[in-house]
Structure formats: C-alpha cells, structure tokens
Amino acid sequence: xxxxxxxxxxxxxxxxxxxxxxxxxxxxxxxxxxxxxxxxxxxxxxxxxxxxxxxxxxxxxxxxxxxxxxxxxxxxxxxxxxxxxxxxxxxxxxxxxxxxxxxxxxxxxxxxxxxxx
Length: 117
Known about the structure:
By secondary structure, this protein is an alpha+beta fold. It has helices at residues 16-28, 46-63, 70-92; strands spanning 2-5, 8-10, 32-39, 100-108, 111-116. Strand 1 and strand 2 (8-10) form a beta hairpin.
C-alpha cells in the first residue's frame, strides 16, 4: 500500500519521525489531498502498480495550476494514473499481472471531494 499525503508517496509506516515529516510538509502544502493505493492481492506486480498509480495521481494534481472543477480533476487524475499503470504493464510484457485499488480525497473551499476505484 502506498499513500500520497500532501504530495509525498509513502509505503505504510508507524515511524514517528516519518509522521512528523508528513505533518510538517502538510502545513506548508497548498493542496490538501490524500491518495491511498493498495495492490491487488496475488498480482505479481501489484506493489509496482500501486506505487505508479499513487505517484501519477499525485503528479497530476500537483501540476494543475488551479483546480476549478474538483470532481472532473479527480476523474482525469485517476484516468491518467490508470494509463500510467497500463503503460508499465505493457512494457513488462504479455504475462505481467498487476493492479491496484485507489481512493483519493481532496479538500477545497471547506468541501471534501473523493473518488474510489
């Protein structure tokens, strides 16, 4: 499972110092979002798919200058993440199996928006 918290993609951890770094980064961030990607069990490249999806969604949301239509931006970000995972699987060859579950939430103007795949 990988988590993007305020632009940082991380594997799961109970590390207190890591949590302090996340909190410090969050206080400085201008985007309040979280992304959690968890590999599909039994897939040989599930971990890689989860990391790629997490990084791709984070990258998409962080490069947008201003997000006016949050639901549309989340949908486009998920589509972009999916295309990146597919591209990775295609490069690996025909017998490559991998996938991920994804949930993302973004707060804007005191509203919470989320998407789950």
